[in-house]
Q: What sequence folds into this?
């Protein structure tokens, strides 16, 4: 006999995630406030808080004095309750960041890689992770997992397409499993734009949003979509190719075969080539500093790029609004904050779209995570996987008992 339906274990996991998400977003909170915010029974809340406290995930931060009775104990996420690694690999530059579950950066290492061979890169990642654990005195058992982002599309653990760079030998590599074997830690893989969107949803500009589009300005242009509080990857895992929205019919040729794609006007690679025609597609932090300096000195070459990028982004944002009706569009990526601010200033005011009727939320919002966005977004993957409630957990048709 099979008992099918909403497995109680899934319901418990869902409730734990609801409580964690509520504390993360609204802390500090008392148990009574968590009960009111979640709608769960007081005894359920007490049981979950006891479990989370024993696991070291939540902590008491202070006691709030009230008019009557014992002061309420307030709860918050315990930063030392867990740790994650974010790994970003692009254009021969490896960035590894160690964060705690509250989003604090504990360590950061950036490395220029002499070899792009898969084994060499994966070995370097494993060695760097081990060194950081030792340096920060973090037990491996406290690590929730490792997030890895590459500017590529993945399907069934394999690279399907690469962005601005070609990596011979990587396309047929079972990347997640290969890295997991070396690290002996859970590994999650995502493209850079979706990882950045998840990071903004957890800790940045998307914290109060459930439906938004993220435009990632990097070597190319990527996109991440959040619908009903969950990242949307599409039927084949390839959603968010915002860089190939055509914003100039018959315009500049694109590698995708079309002409006039957004990516051919608004990428950081083009900003750098505007400053130096011989610049290659490799982007390092020194290059981002150069863009910021060009803005500070009002370099006309950068200002021309800003104007072109803003014109194309303005059209793309209205297209996204009309298609998806998001609460807002978050614009970010690796651009330095002053350059991002200047770009948004040129995009505004936006033409009217069908969905542009909400005066409470700006239509375009600057991302908050900064130039380390790829690695920071990667580090949020295990946290999002462990904290954010997903309704599908309640509807898994698992066998719960066999007689």
A:
């Amino acid at each position: 006999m099979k008992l099918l339906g909403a497995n109680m274990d899934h319901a418990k996991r869902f409730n734990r995630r609801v409580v964690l998400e509520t504390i993360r977003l609204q802390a500090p909170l008392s148990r009574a406030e968590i009960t009111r915010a979640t709608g769960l029974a007081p005894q359920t809340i007490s049981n979950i808080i006891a479990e989370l406290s024993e696991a070291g995930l939540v902590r008491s931060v202070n006691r709030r004095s009230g008019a009557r009775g014992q002061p309420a104990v307030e709860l918050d996420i315990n930063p030392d309750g867990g740790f994650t690694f974010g790994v970003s690999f692009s254009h021969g530059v490896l960035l590894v960041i160690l964060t705690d579950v509250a989003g604090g950066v504990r360590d950061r290492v950036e490395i220029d890689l002499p070899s792009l061979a898969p084994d060499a890169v994966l070995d370097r990642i494993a060695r760097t992770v081990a060194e950081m654990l030792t340096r920060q005195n973090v037990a491996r058992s406290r690590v929730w997992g490792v997030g890895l982002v590459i500017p590529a599309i993945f399907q069934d653990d394999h690279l399907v397409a690469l962005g601005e760079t070609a990596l011979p030998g990587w396309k047929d590599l079972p990347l997640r499993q290969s890295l997991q074997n070396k690290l002996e830690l859970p590994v999650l893989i995502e493209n850079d734009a979706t990882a950045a969107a998840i990071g903004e949803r957890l800790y940045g500009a998307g914290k109060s949003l459930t439906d938004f589009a993220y435009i990632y300005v990097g070597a190319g242009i990527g996109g991440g979509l959040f619908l009903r509080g969950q990242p949307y990857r599409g039927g084949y895992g390839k959603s968010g190719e915002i860089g190939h929205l055509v914003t100039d019919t018959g315009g500049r040729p694109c590698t995708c075969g079309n002409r006039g794609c957004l990516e051919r006007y608004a990428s950081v690679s083009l900003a750098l080539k505007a400053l130096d025609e011989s610049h290659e597609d490799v982007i390092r932090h020194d290059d981002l500093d150069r863009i910021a300096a060009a803005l500070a000195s009002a370099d006309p070459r950068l200002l021309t790029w800003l104007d072109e990028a803003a014109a194309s982004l303005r059209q793309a944002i209205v297209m996204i609004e009309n298609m998806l009706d998001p609460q807002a569009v978050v614009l970010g990526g690796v651009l330095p904050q002053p350059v991002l601010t200047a770009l948004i200033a040129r995009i505004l005011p936006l033409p009217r779209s069908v969905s542009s009727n909400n005066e409470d939320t700006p239509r375009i919002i600057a991302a908050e995570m900064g130039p380390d966005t790829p690695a920071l977004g990667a580090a949020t993957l295990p946290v999002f996987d462990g904290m954010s409630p997903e309704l599908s957990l309640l509807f898994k048709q698992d066998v719960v008992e066999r007689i």
In short: Residues 300-324 form the longest helix (25 residues). Residues 205-368 form a domain with the Nucleotidyltransferase; domain 5 fold (CATH 3.30.420.40). The chain has three domains: 8-77, 83-191+379-386, 205-368. Residues 1-6, 391-403 have pLDDT under 50 and may be disordered.
